[in-house]
Amino acid sequence: MEIKKIIEKATNGDQVAFTSLLDMYWNEVYGFMLKRTENETDAEDITIETFSKAFDKIAHYNPEFQFNTWLIAIAKNVHIDMLRKKKISLFVDMNDEEDHQAYNVADTTPSAEDKLITEQNLSRLLEYIKELKPHYQEVIQLRYFQEMSYQEIAEQLDEPLSNVKVKLLRAKKLLAEIIQQR
């Protein structure tokens, strides 16, 4: 099927078209980001976010340009955003007084209150996850709680790797929507 028709179907919400686009362009975007980041996990995360953003904004795609060029441009922007976030978290401006105070911190282990807050947040997150359909719950569980790779999840579920990626992408998006509604 011609790429323009697939994009048109995806624009109209056809899930099979989204899967086709993911299958067609995943390796190209992932390979490009792997060369840039030299880190498989970062490349995978950027690629997933790239497709998520592209699928959300597919109605804005300009067919005068190649679809893969558009995806790569999105990937570059996602990578730049990631680098900015990392840079911000690495560098904190401190004056001498703040620097001295930082060295005088007595104990950095979580307090009982910190542990309680963390447990409550995790409990709330688990409640939100339970609102997802079972197959989305399963991929979230395997990826984030059992820390399985995409390939391991695909083997466990006996599904193609691309299906696992799309399921996880959708699960994260739906979970984010649930959290925002609360």
From TrEMBL:
Signal peptide (UniProt feature, chain positions): none
Key words, A-Z: DNA-binding, Sigma factor, Transcription, Transcription regulation
GO molecular-function term, one example from the UniProt record: sigma factor activity
SUPFAM superfamilies according to UniProt: Sigma2 domain of RNA polymerase sigma factors, Sigma3 and sigma4 domains of RNA polymerase sigma factors
Coiled coil location: none
Keyword Cell cycle applies: no
Single GO BP term: DNA-templated transcription initiation
Chain ranges of the RNA polymerase sigma-70 region domain: 24-87
Span of domain RNA polymerase sigma factor 70 region 4 type: 124-175
A Pfam family hit: Sigma70_r4_2
Keyword check for Cell membrane: no
InterPro entries attached to this UniProt entry: RNA_pol_sigma-70-like, RNA_pol_sigma-70_dom, RNA_pol_sigma70_r2, RNA_pol_sigma70_r4_t2, RNA_pol_sigma_r2, RNA_pol_sigma_r3/r4-like, WH-like_DNA-bd_sf
Family under the similarity heading: Belongs to the sigma-70 factor family. ECF subfamily.
Protein name (Swiss-Prot/TrEMBL): Sigma-70 family RNA polymerase sigma factor
Organism: Flavobacterium piscinae
Taxon lineage: Bacteria, Pseudomonadati, Bacteroidota, Flavobacteriia, Flavobacteriales
